[in-house]
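Materials and Methods. Structural model of RNase H type-1 domain-containing protein. The 95-residue sequence of RNase H type-1 domain-containing protein from Panagrolaimus superbus was retrieved and submitted for structure prediction as follows.
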Amino acid sequence: MYGILMALQFANNESPKLNNFQIVCDSPIFVKYYKREWKKNNGEPVANYHFYKQIVKLADELNVSFCYLPENSEHPDFLSAKLLAQDGLGMPFKA
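The predicted structure was written out as tokens:
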């Protein structure tokens, strides 16, 4: 979730803003709960609801959608994105 939030903040801070794009996730759980407004079956919020609120606000502003693609996907764009994400793990960040 933090990576998704950082990507949305990056897109929002670009000049001009980046918008109308799709974020491909390797987590079906994120996509599932995003579509359910980050709530459990009983209506209570799922953990990290504060991240969800920030993500949905930026995603709505930027017209962003989310989809799931399994981690073992052989799609070339997904493989490139996976390598970039792994490279990003070594970068310093501010919390």
